[in-house]
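// run 5 | inverse folding | seed 20
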């Protein structure tokens, strides 16, 4: 007898029907290669697609189920992931198209854009779902699904230099004013603040994984100088760059460049 189906071919009860639908949905996710994951209210992975399993460097979902980010990612990235997970789990917020670093199997890092949403059981939040995708260049047709994609990719690629709203708007063939409205409507923040968050995450990465001097990190991440980076960092992270480095350096090291 198939699971969830009686001998006459009818579903046995609602629980069995839900299980069958869940299995079918995951099959569909795997067919299209979506990087999907779900966590419970303790932030433990309870479901993930085959593509996400491979991204994390595992052979099967069974190896990830029950783990948390603390078990598979460097501490400084866990701090970032946990902060946004808590917004979803505690406040019911949706995190939409967040640009963040993800560690590859070979130890390198790439920029991904991630969306997370709360999972409810009645009125209670019992977990979160998420989808992430790489920000490597894609076929132009993919931009039809997400009209702001080219601007987000430009931010992730060129955050280390001066970027203006006009340049970002040009990347998606919009006027600066219309682009700003569309951007804020979609992300809930301005292009300038979004760019600032990407720069701060890039700085946090270099502080945690290299011995690069603060002056070089400031230049590499698009800040005017070390003082500017320190002020921005302290305001957003509650720590100076030097304090952040002492706290997280060594959790995942890689050679300094430049």
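// decoded
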């Amino acid at each position: 007898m198939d699971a969830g189906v009686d001998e006459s071919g009818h579903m046995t009860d609602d629980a069995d029907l839900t299980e069958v639908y869940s299995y079918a949905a995951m099959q569909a996710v795997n067919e299209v290669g979506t990087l999907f994951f779900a966590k419970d209210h303790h932030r433990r992975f309870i479901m993930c697609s085959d593509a996400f399993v491979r991204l994390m460097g595992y052979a099967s979902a069974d190896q990830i189920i029950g783990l948390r980010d603390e078990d598979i990612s460097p501490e400084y990235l866990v701090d970032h992931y946990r902060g946004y997970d808590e917004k979803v789990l505690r406040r019911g917020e949706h995190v939409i198209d967040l640009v963040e670093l993800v560690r590859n199997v070979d130890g390198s890092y790439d920029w991904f854009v991630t969306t997370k949403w709360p999972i409810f059981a009645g009125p209670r939040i019992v977990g979160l779902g998420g989808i992430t995708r790489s920000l490597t260049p894609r076929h132009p047709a993919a931009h039809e699904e997400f009209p702001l994609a080219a601007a987000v990719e430009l931010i992730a690629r060129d955050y280390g230099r001066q970027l203006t709203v006009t340049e970002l708007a040009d990347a998606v063939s919009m006027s600066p004013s219309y682009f700003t409205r569309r951007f804020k409507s979609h992300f809930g923040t301005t292009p300038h603040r979004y760019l600032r968050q990407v720069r701060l995450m890039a700085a946090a990465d270099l502080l945690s994984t290299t011995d690069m001097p603060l002056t070089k990190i400031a230049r590499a991440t698009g800040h005017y100088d070390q003082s500017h980076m320190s002020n921005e960092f302290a305001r957003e992270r509650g720590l100076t760059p030097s304090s952040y480095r002492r706290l997280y350096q060594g959790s995942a090291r890689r050679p300094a460049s430049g």
